[in-house]
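quick one, two chains, predict together pls
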Amino acid sequence: MYDISALYEAKTVQEAVSLLTAHPDAVIIAGGSDVLIKIREGRLAGCELVSIYGVDEMRGITKEEDGTIRIGSLTSFSHIHADPIIKKHIAVLGEAVNMVGGPQIRAIGTIGGNTCNGVTSADSASTLFAYDAILELTGPDGVRQVPIREFYTGPGRVALKKGELETAVLIPSKSYSGYKGCYIKYGMRNAMEIATTGCSVNVKLSRDKKMLRDIRIGYGVAAPTPIRAVHAEERLRGMEVSAVARDLLGEAVLEDVTPRDSWRASKDFRLHLCSTMAKRAFTEAVRRAGGEIDE
Amino acid sequence: MNEVNRQFKQVTCTINGKVRTTIVDVRASLTDMLRNDYRLTSVKKGCEVGECGACTVLIDGEAFDSCIYLAVWADGKDIITLEGLEGPNGELSDIQQAFIRENAIQCGFCSPGFILSAKEILDSGILYTDDELRKLLSGHLCRCTGYENILKAVKKTMYQRLGKKLPPELEQDETVST
């Protein structure tokens, strides 16, 4: 038995919005792999829950006419990993979510929950940053779209207003067409692990594969929220694909990241990880894009 | 809690092939419902926070930790517990027999969960590599002996079901044990 004072179940997005408006103090529960644990630990004991797990219209992955990939916020990690649209167009996201917890957690955990709980270590977050994802939020005033870079307002805090819920993750065609990427998760174990640091790099090369037309670098646990390494991206954009660029990247990311000491790892170790992982993810992303880095 | 205002809900789902209905307290986990309402005690209460995998059941063919799944969510779902693997005359399934043969069981607490994850793996009809199998089984903790024999049991059953010849390292193992 969970220590819940009331449970309100929504079957549609509209029902969810009205329940959240009627019960402003209630906590949203999607898959529950964070919320139920917090209730068990006592941190959320006695709370009211609005369950959106039954809102089936928020499940599934579709490619819209303009090429935007729409991932319903309740789509589980296991379904994202197995989805043919994801495999074909945004394979890195499928790989990243396949590193969350263990198989059973990936069956219940949702991409919406992973973003809305606001934690920096979320395995999907850095890759969603690297894909410049847009989040669709639905509330009493209708639907709005927020770029993921503006969604996180602090550790554990996101830009959801009262009565609002995240209904979809959108990846526009311009964010993934022509890009190849790589996500690296550093942890002490291969499973049931929270990332010590995570780094996701997307690159777009010129036709002859010699020049970096664009690069996007997303990090988890390199700052209080997931971030983009914008300085490093600016330095690298337009450079020739080379070991020089890679080594410069390793240096430049240190301007962007602000990791801290925690019981999982020290700040110094995380700085080292940020640099090394960026270089490795970059090398692999370039390789996947058909380029080569000469030593 | 000052005010006791208990909330109940009717839940109808298919459990091990039979349609069942009960009324649950909305605070109940699926583990609570399966153990208390249906006496399916193969569903173990281990960590109760989704780490150990002892409470694993199949929901619509996929392995879930039933401890972090609200019972009310089971409405309309197809659930399989270890009891559902029993044959019409009480026979054990191939994977259960493999667990016994490979000494993949000691205290037995983790076994129902492991076997249900193994069922999902085997039912997929895919021939996995050792690394893939390890990853697919990684949502379970065994505190007795470790994982080698469990891996071997799943691997041998996988090869048998697919009608493939056992890899040399497992074949050698067969001749020693018989």
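Chain A touches chain B at residues 1-7, 9, 29, 32-33, 36-37, 40-41, 46, 51, 53-54, 78, 101-105, 107-108, 190-192 (CB under 8 Å).
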